[in-house]
Design a protein that fits this description.
Blueprint (H helix, E strand, L loop, with lengths): L1 H5 L21 H108 L1
């Protein structure tokens, strides 16, 4: 190995290494055929890439159309909900006087109930006094 390192690299004769003089250029016909093959394969590759990109855009377009339809459906649902909410609010407003009357009646019933309890307690006291006087 020391002998190979001492001399210039061109001086080493290895049968596996070709020198510039020994390298042969391919024939003109081979170069043309290789170029045609390369361009054909490159065209096939680029066609595939463009087709894939085109398909991606078609998929995005279909997804956008479906999304648009879903949003239209959601808009219709929201409009219906809004309309129903307005109807409910109007019905509640129409019922409000009756609800206030019910609250008033409830208060009056509670007051009447208290009066009935007081009357009951008073009548029991009277009965007790009457029984006491009757025993005398």
């Amino acid at each position: 190995m020391a002998a190979a390192a001492e001399g210039p690299p061109e001086a080493v004769e290895d049968p596996a290494i070709e020198t510039a003089e020994e390298a042969k250029e391919p024939a003109e016909a081979d170069i043309n055929e290789l170029c045609k093959d390369m361009f054909s394969k490159m065209a096939t590759y680029l066609t595939g890439e463009l087709t894939a990109t085109s398909e991606d855009y078609k998929l995005l377009e279909n997804m956008n159309k479906l999304t648009s339809l879903k949003y239209l459906e959601m808009k219709d649902i929201a409009i219906n909900i809004s309309r129903n909410l307005k109807d409910l609010n109007q019905k509640y407003a129409d019922l409000q006087p009756y609800l206030e009357q019910i609250d008033l009646i409830e208060e009056q019933v509670a007051a009447l109930e208290q009066a009935a309890y007081k009357l009951d307690a008073y009548s029991k006291k009277l009965e007790a006094k009457y029984k006491k006087l009757e025993k005398r």
